[in-house]
Amino acid sequence: MKLFKLLQQKSKYFYLFLIILGLSNTLWSASLLVLINNKITNTPLPFVEQYDWVVYLGLIVTSFIITRYFQSYMIRLTYGLGQELSVALFDKLRFSNYEQFLKLGKDKIRTVITDVSVVQKFPQVFIEIFNSMLMILIGVVYLFFISPLLAIVVIGVLALMVVVYTVRNEAIIKIVSSARDLDNHYQQSVNDFLLGFREIKLSKAKSDTIFHQHLSENRDQLRIKTVNYRIKYMNNELFGSYAFYLLIGMVLFALPFMLNLSSDVKSNFIITILYLLTPIAIVVSMIKEFAVMEVSLGRIEQLNEAIKVDQAIDIRHGEDLPINDTFESLSFENVTYEYSDQGQTSTFKLPPLNIEITSGECLFITGGNGSGKSTFINLLTGMYMPKSGSILLNGYPVTANHYPFYRNQLAAIYADCYFFERNYEKFQLNASNAFLIELIEKMRLSHIVSFNAETGALVTISSVLSS
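The chain above was modelled as a monomer; its predicted structure follows.
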């Protein structure tokens, strides 16, 4: 399982702790089973005939301490892994190129972030299924001591269950994965609905389409898929439970006629089978949790593989251009850019651009729809890197290593700019900043902009209305 590899990479003692937990729970499960059977059949334990209750109590305390420690260790390990996955995702995203970010889409990124929280449920699920599988193993081994032939029958039933679960679980994983795709599309529709609310209010056709054909229909499809795979899981659980009831019936009614079974063997066998019912039910019920986690982890890995950082340079390793603090000129020399689809087929190519912008100039970029204005602005502000040609700042060529520095020299207000509610750059955004107040008054924004003393950020009318 992929998650085990990640946990082992995060902690080299993972498998050691797993072995210790396995040994302690094996001793606990085996001793508990023997104690119960011996107590019911009035068979005293050797050496501790009068103190079997002390043994029982000691096993409980020991198992509790070891299990509690391991669960605490697993919770810290898994939540630490979840934090690393989410932080690493954002760290990788901030160094990806802008065009690739647009292709990935915000909605897919949001759903993958929720996948991280799904993976963090692993400790509870793993501990339950691990303990249950140990109890099943001990129970089967104990059945061989009671009656090897009956034990073979039980193993046959378990093997049949494993085959059925494996086959059905593959189909269930596919359904769960397609449900995750529906969730990606749903998040995109929700994003369109919330961010384009004004446009939706202006168009009844758009309002009806986004609601009926995207939001509502998406939830209907998700409901159908969810009901489908949950019914499949339920069928697995019922099959497991009733297969064991049939096995008990065979021991009670059929096998005594076929084999010469003593009453002690039969009662011990029935007690052991009943003892195994609970751990088997737990294993079956947890299979769906593992399936969901596998899908979530796969989505996280897919997104990580999709994010390429070859065109983005880490700010910590970028290089500064040897320029002074005064802007002199910005030049494009035969700069081109090209968009391509998933098949790497060119969909739009910007012809070579040659332009020089000097200090103090005010330029207007005009052109029809699709002429390349936005592409030019993204090249100018460093969101895109040229496919060919050169950009020069104060006469110095801007190479890939210089892009973090280059972008940091620019300020841009895009048509779809985002107004941050927090002061991430730690500017002095308060009334004591005389230069800021002067700019606000010059732009005639005094009646629109105010200050938030708690967050140290600006507040606008639109942000007040949204809150």
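The CA atoms of residues 382 and 407 lie 6 Å apart.
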